[in-house]
């Protein structure tokens, strides 16, 4: 294998665009605003491993095919984000159609083209992490700090079947700590350390990475620690329960074996606390430990890839004083294990066939210990999920053909069998919970879903300056364990279920069926011949989702006992049950760049921008939840010697088309201005930035309901007041120092 800087690879590919393979050509169409931002903040991108070319240098590539509407974020771009965020999911906001559902400071949930949470499947070095919390406080991207990411690739719902199964929105593939090998004999040592400070919330942290390697062996470590207090909104209000502390780490050993590469990695996480302004509970402990083994090899017939992994998570929810108070522990233990095997077989000079099989298994226990002295929360342990099991076996076959230099097609089929079951449950006591628990236990809870997916993609490269791509895919997602098996309609129990941040309560539905998304997308991209002066890309899409897993107002007797007007109220928190409905989504993403000047006096300057629009609704007229309003980012970037700077303006429209069934809150439009300035001197780099320069006061469109700052007092104690969104952070002065060695 050959090791080259990513920037050099991209430049070489773009310079020879007429001859490049289609799977590599897409690198030149990576959203410019992502690569430009990375270049402004971290010009020295990390080394990545590049697979050798096919023996005759022609035909299709052994690498995974990247559709033209996919997006990539480099390690340099991810590390640069450390200046303003410790949340790796926030990187998704820089790709076309990307946004995040607000949650904890390092645990937001990604959404792409209106599809969020479980509909976006995230892998970390090919590992999958199932929800290990009834509020999804520990999503997969919380297990890596931004500075740990070496690259990130995002595939949308119209991607080929080889990009994975059991999702309907997008697939995010994250790589951490790639191997670096010495090109000659002897040992090399590389690495770096960085530290940051952000004034809003008094956030600070450190990250470090190091690699020791010779010609065929590489040992790498990467990790980071971050801490923050509660942040302040633009009007000076402290947004309670936004504090956090987190630590992530990974150690890997990689070995070259002839034309193959074998790696084994161990890693983990420790989060002692993380506040959630839009949840009734906080995270008061989260520990994980994983082991992951991977192999990639080139053979006469093609390429073989295999991964096997295991992961254990121990999670506890409670209250962080003084923003929330009380004693109500909620515990979760989860185990993930699985493997993937994939072969890419060269059939002819123009044809590749990809086949693969994967197994994924999740085991979940969710229990709430009794509260001493409480008649309502005792004397027994509340068993929410007992011996929950979700296993999936997936198999796919895919054919890629390069008909001529202009035309490429990909066709694929996939089958995923999802098997789910859970054991008996119980409430805190028989008087309040006994009847419901007995009814749940009496049911046959085993469910098996046999899901079939397919994809078709046609790419046409009319000339070296244009590309057109039409894609269609059917993607299927089975319910998660909470959607099917959360069982109690007690008010408190329902309010503990739900990763939506809306303040509502949820109960499961054992009769849910998988949702099936039928997505068609089109991408057109144009650029100048040298790909230096300008680029533009437009990607419209449409999805019709059969049996979309949404929610209805709960009409069960327990729900109506919680709130008599539950079926009709429009100005209060409500109680919901997961339910299937047909739905549709459509939208368009536009992004591009324009070089403005290149002089000895002022250096190089350019403009970049993007525009995103999505609309989603059920066929019964109910708007889908958490649809990001129309938004755009415009930026002016400049480099001059070791200096670089960026002036960025983010525009977000008003959110008025909200989910009626959830009583979702509306938000107003706003604009934010961010400044960035950096200087590189040999191995030392200093960055400075001001986020929200004019201290704009605004509400997060996907931030949900603020359940902490606004409280009502009654005979039962205090309770959250309906009608208040979560405000975004006000102005912050940020700085970051990094040193490479």
From TrEMBL:
The keyword Transmembrane applies. It is a multi-pass membrane protein. Residues 86-169 form the TonB-dependent receptor plug domain. It comes from the Bacteria. Its main location: membrane. Residues 1-36 form the signal peptide. Keywords: Cell outer membrane, Membrane, Receptor, Signal, Transmembrane, Transmembrane beta strand, Transport. It is found in: Cell outer membrane. Pfam families: Plug. One of its GO terms (biological process) is siderophore transmembrane transport. The keyword Transmembrane applies. One of its GO terms (cellular component) is cell outer membrane. One of its GO terms (molecular function) is siderophore uptake transmembrane transporter activity. InterPro entries: Beta-barrel_TonB_sf, Plug_dom, TonB-dep_rcpt-like. This is TonB-dependent receptor.
